[in-house]
């Protein structure tokens, strides 16, 4: 399902089926639309444990 089904006009006869109508986005629309969010705010720093040199001598 790429888009919601069109709304059918109600006639004189009553409906015997469900009245529920999905009004949100379809799975296709959800996957296609990129998520818009702010990038996280943080600073990278060196860990104090890995500053020492590793000489083979």
Automatic annotation (TrEMBL):
Segments of skewed composition (Basic and acidic residues): 26-35
Any one Gene Ontology BP term: actomyosin structure organization
Record-linked Pfam families: FA (PF08736)
Gene Ontology CC: one annotated term: plasma membrane
Region (Disordered): 23-57
Residue stretches making up the FERM adjacent domain: 11-55
InterPro entries xrefs: FA
Coiled coil regions, renumbered to chain: none
UniProt protein name: FERM adjacent domain-containing protein
Species per Swiss-Prot/TrEMBL record: Bracon brevicornis
């Amino acid at each position: 399902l790429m888009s919601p089904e069109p709304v059918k006009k109600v006639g004189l006869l009553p409906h015997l089926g469900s009245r529920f109508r999905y009004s949100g986005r379809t799975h296709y629309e959800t996957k296609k639309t990129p998520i818009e969010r702010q990038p996280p705010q943080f600073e990278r720093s060196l860990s104090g444990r890995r500053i020492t040199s590793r000489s083979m001598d």
